[in-house]
Amino acid sequence: MNGFMGPDLAGTLATWVAALATIAVWSYLVGYRRLFVLSQHLLAGLATGYLVLLAIHDVLVPRLITPLIEHPRDHLLLLPALVLVGLLVGASWLPRRATAPVGAILVGGLAAFALGGAVVGTILPQIAAALPATAVASSDLAGEVISLAITTLVLLAFLHGAPRGALTVRAATVGRWLLIGGIGGWLGFLVVSRLSLLVDRLAFLLGDWLTVLR
Amino acid sequence: MTNSPAPPAASAEAVARLRRVAPALLLLVVLVVATLLQPGAGGLRLASPDRSHVDQLRRAIGDLPSEALVLIACDADLGTYAEIRAATRAAIEDLGAHGAQLAIVSFTPEGRAIAAAERDRIAHSGAEPPADLGFVAGAEAGLVRGVASIVPAAAEGPIFDAIRQRGGGIGAFDMVLIVSGSDISARSWVEQVGPRLPDLAMITIAPTFLDPELEPYLRSGQLDGLLATLREGTAYANAVTSGSPADRGPGIAPLPMLVGMLAALAALAEAASRRLTRRVRRLPRRRAS
Nearest chain B Cα to A51, which residue? Predict the structure, then answer.
């Protein structure tokens, strides 16, 4: 009942394939690793095929090849991109000196985007949001003091290598337990999250496939 | 002629194997029974009693102007989409009920697969699916490129024309609904698009594991709405469903969830008691030594 498979033949076939794949993955629970490994290979193969198709159909043809064929003069900047694609495709045959700059450009570009975004979009706005906006005392003063105390204690727990007195050691221990408590709470949410995925699969098998829930 | 008994080693191995798989099988059987019994457990509800996030998200959608352009950025993971499926569909329905003009785009391959499947599902149900802006490669770089231009050159239709008239980029939209995943989440949008388009309203639906990462953005006002736990998603889906007869399929059933959580607690208690027992056994030895 996930709503993706229709009642037609294609939908029925897809439901059966999905149900059998689910059971193949679950066979690992009872120690049948061959089916599980087979389903892993199936997933890897399908994912690779899908990615290749997506790259060709949604990226290379409409955004690179078609503009270059139809209006080459308007898209001169795509020519270097075509060279980069050629270098990436031939990476296994070409000398490392030719392909390394391409990888460096890709990794460097993405890292620059990520770092710049983290500073401008996260660090600075979050610091600004944490600072008191007015001189008037906040309505949730107790909450803010507790937050500050917890943050300080947890930060102390990460104080490694520096000389620490008895008080700092105790504070760091409290911070470590607070950290463990926080992670424990988050893991509890994660258990619920993963459990919901299992329950959803069961509902799929019983509802969509075996139709005993309808 | 008598049957010779099985070699003891083989039978011991079979018993050991059975003991290994028994907990998992037992849990599966119990969950199956709970799922089958679910229709009779009408009193159980999964929805969160804290409706602040739900109300905030509904308010953000309610504040949209008529015929607003809304972009659905579908970048969920295939593995965790089931957790946020009901809330995502409810949000699409909610936006449609408010007269929004919807377009959908993906920046991850997994998100593209989900977006295509959701468009097919909506089309099969007889409703108008969101306009398809396709897949944009490049992750964060693709997001930044989308600020300038997001409409495919060959796309034709009234929604595409409306986007082009407003500049053709993400800034043309009144709001973005970000269906978050591990690769591209609301964080990527806040970091890459937020500073470039500070007036763009952003709401997000995210799986639970992203909640600690995204909650600060909601508190700082960089996000206008966030649903990041199963309980919030269920509460939102219920709130939207109460005013609509559309069938999105049932959400996650509460009875098997309750049974599963009890099983998890039992496993924790069993592990803790085993550890405690081991410590208690060691105590006399330490005292003796």
Answer: B109
A98 and A152 assigned to the same domain = no
Domains, in order of start, for chain B: 52-241 (3.40.50.10160)
Q: Any chain B CB within 8 A of the CB of A75?
A: no
Name the domain count of chain A: 3
- Whole-number Å distance between alpha carbons of B189 and B173: 14
Residue among A67, A91, A90 at smallest CA distance from A79: A67
Which chain B residues have a beta carbon less than 8 Å from that of A63? 137
Q: In terms of DSSP H, where are the helices of chain A? A: 9-26, 33-54, 66-70, 78-89, 96-117, 124-130, 141-157, 166-203
Q: Same domain, yes or no, for A35 and A104?
A: no
Q: Tell me whether residues A113 and B141 touch, CB distance under 8 A.
A: yes
Residue B73, token pair as written in the block:
């950025």
What three-state secondary structure class fits B85?
helix
Among B66, B209, B156, B276, CA closest to A190? B209
Instruction: Find chain B residues with C-beta within 8 A of A186's C-beta.
Output: 211-212
Low-confidence ranges of chain B (pLDDT < 50): 1
**B195: closest CA of chain A, how far (Å):** 6
Of A113, A192, A201, the CB nearest to B261: A192
Could you give the CA distance from residue B277 to residue B280 in angstroms, rounded to a whole number?
Answer: 5
The predicted model scores a pTM of 0.88
ipTM score here? 0.85
Q: Give the residue numbers spanning the domain of A196.
A: 139-214
Q: What is the pLDDT of residues A26-64, one digit of tens each?
A: 998 888 889 999 999 999 999 999 999 999 999 999 988
How far is the C-alpha of B212 from the C-alpha of B214, rounded, in Å?
A: 6
